[in-house]
Write a structure and sequence with these properties.
Number of strands: 16
Function: Participates in both transcription termination and antitermination.
Family: Belongs to the NusA family.
Shape: elongated
Number of domains: 5
Number of helices: 17
CATH superfamily of the largest domain: NusA, N-terminal domain
GO cellular component, one term: cytosol
Largest sheet: 5 strands, mixed, barrel
Mean pLDDT: 82
Helix content: 25-40%
Radius of gyration: 33 Å
Subunit structure: Monomer. Binds directly to the core enzyme of the DNA-dependent RNA polymerase and to nascent RNA.
Keywords: Cytoplasm, RNA-binding, Transcription, Transcription antitermination, Transcription regulation, Transcription termination
Low-confidence stretches: 357-366, 428-433
Length: 441
C-alpha cells in the first residue's frame, strides 16, 4: 500500500494547489496508474481502474485476451495458461487479474506521478489559453512578482497560475515599479512557449490607453461609442479617434466626461501624458483635418493612389500642426493611416497651389471617393455595392436604407451603418475640433 499512498499523496497535493474537481482528479489518477502499468508490463497493456468514492481504495484489474500463441505478452495470454486457472476459458475470452499495488515497484510509481503532473500541466496550459485568447486588448491587474533583466514578471489577481510579463519595450520608461507593487496593464498577445502560454502585457501600447477609456467611459462599454483608431508616443502624447452610433451622444464629450473627469482619470494613470480626442470620420480629408488638432487646418487635398494628404495651415498654425519634434503631424498620420504633408499657406502659394487653394467649393464639399478608400466599409460590402453598380461615394449618396437592403448580402445592420456614414459625411459638423487634455509643456 506504500505505492498507493505515494500516488494518493501526490494527487492530494495537486488537488489543493490546482483546484481540481473530483472528476478531473479521478481521470488524472486513472491515467497515472495506466502509465505505471505501461512501465511494468509494456505500452500496450490494458486494464480497468476503479476508485471507491467512500474509502478511496483503488482496484486495478489487468486485462489480457486469450489466444493460441501470444504475440504481445502485455495484452495476450496463451490458452493453456488461461485454462490452468479455469478450464472453461476459450480463445477470445478476456482473462482478468487484479494487480496489488505492491507489484508496481518504485519505477512504476514514479512514472504514475510524472504522468499525473504532466496531465495537470497540460490542463493548466489549456485553461490559460482558453481564458485569455479572447481577452487581448483587455485590462488586467496584478502584483509585480519579480524584476529580471528589465522585464516585469506579474502575478495576476484572478489567474495566479498564468505566466504574465511586461517586457522592457512594453513599459513606460518614465514609470518605475518595485517588487510587490500593484500594476495594471493591457493584454497585448498570448505567446506559445515550450513551458506553456505566456501573457505579454503592455503599458506602452495604444491598446493600454483604449482599455483605460473603456474602463472610464460607460458609453464605450455599452457599445454606443467606439474608439476607431489610436496612435501613441508613450510618455508624451496619445491621439484617439472616437465615433458614436447614436446621434444624440457626442463621442468626444463622452470620453472627456463632466469637467474632464473621465479623461483626467486616464491621464493620471498615464502619469500626465497628453491626450487628444478627435471625432472619427470615414472621409480621409476630413479625418486628417480633425487629426491635426489642436491646429486649425485651412484646406486639405488627398491622393488616394499614394494615400497622401496635403494639408494647408495658416502661418501661425504651422508650428502647432507640426508639434514638438514633428510629433503632432506624425501621430495624426499614424491615426489616419495616410501620409500627411504639411504646408503653410505661403509655402502652398509658392508651390503653385493658388488655384486649388482658392478654388470654388468650401470645406463642406464631399470629395468623390472610391468606396474601397472609405474607412469603415467592410471589403465584402464594397464588393456587393460594386456588383450593384455603385463604385464611388457619390454613387451611394442619394440611396435610401431600402435601396441598400435590395442588394444581396446587405444586412439591416450594415444598411444602417452605411446610412449613418453618409449622414456623417454630408452633414456639417459644427464641432470639428478636438478635445485635448492640456498639460504644461
Amino acid at each position: 500500500m506504500v505505492a498507493s499512498a505515494e500516488i494518493l499523496t501526490a494527487i492530494r497535493e495537486l488537488t489543493n494547489s490546482k483546484q481540481l474537481d473530483r472528476t478531473e482528479l479521478y481521470a488524472l489518477l486513472q491515467d497515472g496508474i495506466l502509465a505505471a502499468l505501461a512501465k511494468k508490463y509494456g505500452p500496450t497493456v490494458q486494464a480497468e481502474v476503479d476508485i471507491d468514492d467512500d474509502t478511496g481504495q483503488i482496484r486495478v484489474v489487468l486485462l489480457r485476451t486469450v489466444v493460441e500463441e501470444p504475440q504481445d505478452p502485455a495484452r495476450e495470454v496463451s490458452l493453456d495458461e488461461a485454462r490452468a486457472l479455469d478450464a472453461e476459458f476459450q480463445v477470445g475470452d478476456v482473462l482478468e487479474r487484479e494487480v496489488p499495488f505492491s507489484e508496481f515497484g518504485r519505477a512504476a510509481v514514479q512514472a504514475a506521478k510524472q504522468r499525473i503532473v504532466q496531465r495537470v500541466r497540460e490542463g493548466e496550459r489549456t485553461r490559460i489559453k482558453d481564458e485569455f485568447s479572447t481577452k487581448v486588448g483587455e485590462l488586467l491587474s496584478g502584483e509585480v512578482q519579480q524584476i529580471e533583466r528589465g522585464k516585469l514578471v506579474v502575478m495576476l489577481n484572478k489567474f495566479r497560475e498564468a505566466e504574465a510579463i511586461i517586457p522592457y519595450r512594453e513599459q513606460n520608461h518614465r514609470e518605475h515599479y518595485h517588487q510587490g507593487e500593484t500594476i495594471r496593464a493591457v493584454l497585448k498577445r498570448v505567446e506559445d512557449t515550450p513551458k506553456g502560454p505566456r501573457l505579454i502585457l503592455s503599458r506602452s501600447d495604444a491598446l493600454f490607453v483604449q482599455a483605460l477609456f473603456r474602463l472610464e467611459v460607460p458609453e464605450i462599454q455599452q457599445g454606443i461609442v467606439e474608439i476607431r483608431a489610436a496612435a501613441r508616443e508613450v510618455g508624451s502624447r496619445t491621439k484617439i479617434a472616437v465615433f458614436s452610433r447614436d446621434d444624440a451622444v457626442d463621442p468626444v464629450g463622452a470620453c472627456v466626461g463632466l469637467k474632464g473627469a473621465r479623461v483626467q482619470a486616464v491621464v493620471n494613470e498615464l502619469g500626465g501624458e497628453r491626450i487628444d480626442i478627435v471625432p472619427w470620420s470615414a472621409d480621409p480629408e476630413r479625418f486628417a483635418k480633425l487629426a491635426l488638432a489642436p491646429a486649425k487646418v485651412a484646406r486639405v487635398f488627398s491622393d488616394a493612389g499614394s494615400r497622401t494628404i496635403q494639408a494647408i495651415v495658416d502661418e501661425d498654425q504651422l508650428s502647432l500642426a507640426i508639434g514638438r519634434n514633428g510629433q503632432n503631424v506624425r501621430l495624426a498620420s499614424e491615426l489616419t493611416g495616410w501620409k500627411i504633408d504639411l504646408y503653410s499657406s505661403r509655402e502652398w502659394l509658392e508651390k503653385g497651389g493658388e488655384q486649388q487653394l482658392f478654388a470654388a467649393g468650401g470645406d463642406d464639399e464631399v470629395e468623390d471617393l472610391p468606396l474601397g478608400d472609405i474607412a469603415g466599409i467592410d471589403p465584402a460590402v464594397v464588393a456587393v455595392l460594386e456588383a450593384g453598380g455603385y463604385r464611388t461615394l457619390n454613387d451611394i449618396l442619394d440611396l435610401e436604407r431600402d435601396d441598400f437592403l435590395k442588394l444581396p448580402g446587405i444586412a439591416p445592420a450594415e444598411a444602417d451603418r452605411l446610412i449613418q456614414m453618409i449622414d456623417e459625411l454630408t452633414t456639417e459638423d459644427e464641432s470639428e475640433g478636438a478635445a485635448e487634455e492640456p498639460q504644461d509643456g
